[in-house]
Each structure stands twice: as structure tokens, then as C-alpha cells.
Here is the input.
Amino acid sequence: MFLRNAWYVAAWDREINRSLTPRRILDEAIVFYRTADGQVVALEDACPHRKLPLSMGRLQGDQIECGYHGLTFNATGKCVRIPCSTYIPKGARVRSYPVVSRYGLVWIWMGAAELANESDIVPVAHWAEPGWGTNSGDAMTVDAHYLFVTDNLLDPSHVAWVHPGSFGDTACETEPVAVEATGQGIIALRWMRGVEVTPFYAPFVKFQGPCDRLQHYEVRYPSHAVIKAVIVPAGSASPDAEQHPQAFIMDSYNFMTPVDGDQTRYYWFQMRNFAPDDAAVSQQMTDSVRAIFEQDRAILKAVHQGFKHKRTPNIDIPIDSAPLRFRRRLSQLIAAEQPAQPVTAAPPPTVAAT
Here is the structure.
């Protein structure tokens, strides 16, 4: 089950052009293209005649012509032509999805179109702000259910074991992880105090010696993560640490889009408070982050298979508090979208004949 009244990332903006681009999102087949004036269109990828994917057809101007019998659909999903017929049946249309381009990404609303509100798209702090640089990857397909990915992104502790030599190297097992519920999701965070700067961050940190490091792991419903790393000289941890003159800040935005129950598309980029125009730094960070996420991808694929074929029960441990709270609340949101079941009156009681 998926939360449908929500925005999901469908593609990088640069991926959608004047060709037909198929995607599967929440186990629905969708075809994307861009009109001549640059607008992105998203339609159900199935002709209503014989259900051939429209992505197997061709773009004629701003309309899609089915590759089987030539039925033609406009950008709203309405059939405007059936060859050899002057009659167009009422059911000759396909669903159209609301789409928005923002932050270099194409966002799609998968639920009721009348509920789509662009202001609900995850805000990105410091986007296009002077002094802040950006680096981004392409997109990864993770062979795992998307909730295993959100589990991972609400777990600050895993970096010590999954990412040694990059994000990890310090377990800090005695440092408690605080868990907080917000109206938009769940936050798990902790300060790691007096630790070494790990290898991923070391080339960019502006000071020498041990540091205090904030791990801020936040996942917003349905599956969007904001991971904030703040690194300051040891002894400087505080709610205002980002204002420290030597603070290193990296905000990682991670958008998980379920393909179906077994695969997830993972889109990501980072914002940083240094070297805003340095292409070499951006490339170095992109390459390093991609390698780190490949480690996660291998772990999550194995976890997905482990759960899919488990023969004995799994257990939960204290670090699972944030992921479990996220899952519970998301489950409630999904349940609230389901249509109410009709109430059937109980039959009258049977009265024995006398």
C-alpha cells in the first residue's frame, strides 16, 4: 500500500524532453513528455482500446498517437481522434496527473488531482542562495521496498558499520539518539562529541583536531529524507552551531519513489555552505556520495530479500524507534485514504416459534 495523496519525484527535469518517457510509480504505468512550449505532461501509459502502452506510440505535435490503431490523446488525456470513426466513446480517455518542475526535478501528484497543492512539496533551504553549492547524482534503482530505505535514513547509527572509511568510523554507542515526531514526519538526531572528522568530511572542514558532529536524520511522509550534517570544533555543539564561523554544513535531500513493492527509485542532491562555484568539489562529493549509497543499496537489497524469505521472526532494537514510529504514522495516513466500507445492518434476531 502507498500514500497516494502526496508528491513524488518522477524524474530529473533534464530527463523529460520531446520524446515519450515511460515510468512506473506506485505500481502505475505513466508516460511523460514535454510540450512544444516546455510544459511537462504525465498520462496513464495505457491506451483504453487494447491497453497498449502509449509510450510505444509516437508524439504528434503535443499529442500522443497510439502505436496500435492510431487513437490520439491530447495533453489532458482526452481522446481527440479515432481513425475510421467519427464517434469517440465517453471512456476514450486516459488519466492525467498533476506535475510540477522544482529544484531540477519533476514532481508528480499520485492522488486526487483536486487535492494537489504545490506548497506541499518539500522545501529546500538555501536553494540558489549565494554562498551555497549544490551537487547531485543521477538516480539509483534500489531493489528493496521503499520502507526499508526510509528505515535506513532514520538510523544514524548504521554509518559506523555500513560506511567505515567515509561517513562512519565512529560508533558513539553511548550517545543517545533523540526521536521527535513533527507534523510532516519523524526526526532522529544526536550530537557526537569530541570525535575525529571522518574521511568524507575531512578535506572540506576548516579546522584541525576533534569535532562535534550533528547527525540530523529526518524523513517526511511519504518518503522524503533531509539529512543534515553539521561539524564544528569540539566543545562547540549547540542549537546555534550552524552559526559558528568554522561550521561545515551539508544538507542531503533524498527522495524515494516506490516503483512497486520490490523496487525504489532514489533521487538525491546535497547543499553545502562552502565552495559554491567549485565544479571539482561538486564532482568529488557526487562521486563519493554515490559510492557510499552503493553500500546502502547492497545492504537494503539483502534486507529486502531476507524479509521476503524469512523463516523465523525478526526482532527490533532501540535504534529502531524512529523507523517504527514513522511506519506506524504512515500506515495511519494510508488507511485514512481508503474508502469507507459500507455498514451492513445486522439481521434481525431469530425468534423461536411457540
In short: The first helix runs from residue 146 to 152. Residues 73 and 80 are 6 Å apart (CA to CA). The longest strand covers residues 185-195. The mean pLDDT is 93.
